[in-house]
């Protein structure tokens, strides 16, 4: 179904005070402040998503970019509804729950059933159908925090694939312990997937304290009944946009240095860490470098619908397939706003000599040389797969998953000093690459 | 109106596994764990409140108390409904909001109006009617944390009295910045009051990040419109209970050493810090001392409906008015579960010699001597006002108001080691007073 949602752009007079966006070291902070305050949550495909596109275009023009444009793409629109999860008698309590992105809703009266708990997705996959059939699956995976947020990759499979594996064994629904590292009582959303030929069952996350509470209840009464009600909608296909802007290169304008972030956010926080900070950083980096007349073109890409599965990035790669040979470099900022501690690369072996020289300029900021295995960032990984050289300025993610994908991802969680350090690093990396003639593919 | 809510007690088979409550140093923790997991939130007057009464009676009996009984009292029942607060165009965002306890709801369609912001209640009181009339008042008081939680008393007036002061100036509703010290995105509830002859306007709190967000929006657009919808109910009078239990004194059974906490909680967290920890502590203290055959009677009082305005405590004081002369001492634990750092007293000057000797026994736990100005705790302050000697084992409240009265007040916020230190201190204080002949009134 193609939706008839047509937002009239003229209606979006952002109506803010004429601001002077100062070209200073706090520009990244002021941009993320403006985005989160004036637009706030901007789930891909919503009216707020489109307001954020207008916001980005206006700000990029104010900042003096040489070209600013948008590129539309189609996407499946998903809409969160109210979610309610209650434990039946004798406990009679509600748990803090949120739908996973993409999940179907429940029937109007909800789904009530006994529960079967697993510690990991792997345990679920190995379970007997008789133990899962007609139950609500509960995956109670615990996490530990570290600077790289490494646990996330280990347990996020339960979020992405849990519904498919549970449905294969006949489960009625799945709830997971939030893929987050905080014991604050927020449920952590994020995208989940279905598979053709497997029943689509509702999928939701409960907060870490609620997962602990539920597991204690199950010790007392393994037969307890949970009731889940969710009324999400999947209305169909809508249009979203990547927003693109350039500082034209003074000497080699056809060579594109792409720096990026994603403009969309989940809908419960204001998307400050994920990824308002990145948006502010790459906009500020290019705007500040304009004064230096960089030799190569610096292209800022603010991807749409990263959260739904890199949809904007895939659209960008498809549309620009013929020009990717001109993309001499790409990088994305999408891991919050913690201090950068390492410079990872994903480029040709010969280029590493250049990269090591670049790292020496980053070293005074406390940034070490990392391995040559960088993805470049979630969206940029799509470009890397097509041969574009990349790097990742690795941010300290120790507390990133305390806030990520929760209502608690708000501006106050950004440390302005750490964001200044990020901006300095982005300026150095982008300047050095834009003013060099190095071929990072070799 | 007297409500027809009659909960059939026989229906409350708590149906938990037969547990052995071990008489050990973790007994307080296991009790608060049991209360928060098996009962959870227990707003006064609700079905869960009554389940908690049954829970307390059963546990007190299991613990071997000599007498266990309940004392009913009447109370006004208030029921939270859904609350929604949105900022109109151009911002189009929802803010995290919760009703203050006792607040009326809004009309079904809500209240939409421009906003007038004040930094403090005092600023509101001094405002011109023309600036407030027909607007939504926003009190944006900031807090700072400290070990005594001292700021709470300074700003909580905005919560308790803000609606009256705003209504006197013709406001349509009031929202306040949460009376809490955390930047987690939880709104902080708590009791508010109306005054006869002043219109009853809806009152709500928004989280600290939302208050910051709103104040930034007001800088950009002072004319912005807020819409508040709340459907709370005030159905009328119901019965709640104080639960009381005694270890009969071996030598002076008529002399009552009263130790207490409150059994009710707000409805959004599980009431672990406020005041499940206190419930666990005083139940465990008396149960453990039973083995030592204390000379005076130790009476545990679990007050009902503290949160609604010390309603259970007032009922207790009224019912026992004639016997208060036999109450040789009273104290309450109701400030979370942080380590105890000071022993404050509220007793006769001569008794301070005894108190200083008692403090020497507490000193190895890191507990200093405090002033003779203790309230004894919120509920016990009612008894102090009628001449009962009191003391307060002062808990470290540095992070208490991070969690207090929010959905985030859950078991995981209690440090079992700190609770053990609390239990040791309560055992020492209660033992020394129960085994002495000192007259603390003198």
UniProtKB/TrEMBL annotation, chains A, B:
InterPro entries: CPQ (IPR039866), Peptidase_M28 (IPR007484). The lineage of its organism: Bacteria, Pseudomonadati, Pseudomonadota, Gammaproteobacteria, Alteromonadales. Homodimer. The monomeric form is inactive while the homodimer is active. Keywords: Carboxypeptidase, Endoplasmic reticulum, Glycoprotein, Golgi apparatus, Hydrolase, Lysosome, Metal-binding, Metalloprotease, Protease, Secreted, Signal, Zinc, Zymogen. Its main location: endoplasmic reticulum. This is Carboxypeptidase Q. It is found in: Endoplasmic reticulum; Golgi apparatus; Lysosome; Secreted. The keyword Signal applies. Coiled coil: none annotated. Residues 242-427 form the Peptidase M28 domain. It holds the Pfam family Peptidase_M28.
